[in-house]
Amino acid sequence: MNEERGWNAEFFDALGLMHNAETAEIEQAFQVETRGHLSDRRVADWAGLLPSDDMFMVAHDMSSPTPLHSHDFYEFSYVTGGIVLNVVDGQRLYMLPGSLCVMNLNTRHTLEVIDSEAVVVNLGIRPKLFLEGIFREFMDEDNVMSEFLRGEGARGHLFFSDAGDRALIGEMAALASTYSQAGMRQSYALAGRVLMLLDRLARTPTYSYFGVDTKTMHMVSFIRDHCEVASVQAIA
Predict the structure, then answer these.
(1) Tally of structural domains, the chain
(2) Which of 23, 118, 195, 196 could covalently link to 62 via disulfide, CB atoms 3.0 to 4.6 Å apart?
(3) pTM value?
(4) Position 5 in a domain
């Protein structure tokens, strides 16, 4: 339970960055809050696990599943490497590298282990951040993210993918670096980065409520495992 986990270097490789002072800062930023496995007790007591700031970032590997839980903040859950099964309100979503699942307030979910070396980076935003200023202006806008944050619609989550342009991983890397440079605390610079992420997601047409389901995951796995030997007809 008390074992401190090091950061997975594949995160930096996925970013295409050299291991230098900048990436060392990102590494330090994500070694912080999650040590050892999450227990039911610790998940039930988020106040003892997560920072009290209105904006914060934590990360963990997937060597152990997380129990079913909900949050009183918006959770932006991003997979940097490996495959994660995120069961959101009973719906099974397979999250591949570059996948982002945004979950609304009180959405219940659990993460199941498929790849023990998978790494999840979480951005948490508490709702009081949207009560005033430019965040309130964003909340009042007419776009998919603003409507989602207001709780409009029946779905408690949105699913995004990098779709080959690596835009999301760039945003997450910038957030990580900014968070680290501020001493892993909330800052004006972090607020600016969060607004940029929200704006990008608001303008992204390729979101869904379903992500990669079990059937699609089976198809992807078959193609990945057999593409070098199977014919097009066999794959079809």
Answers:
(1) 1
(2) 118
(3) 0.75
(4) no
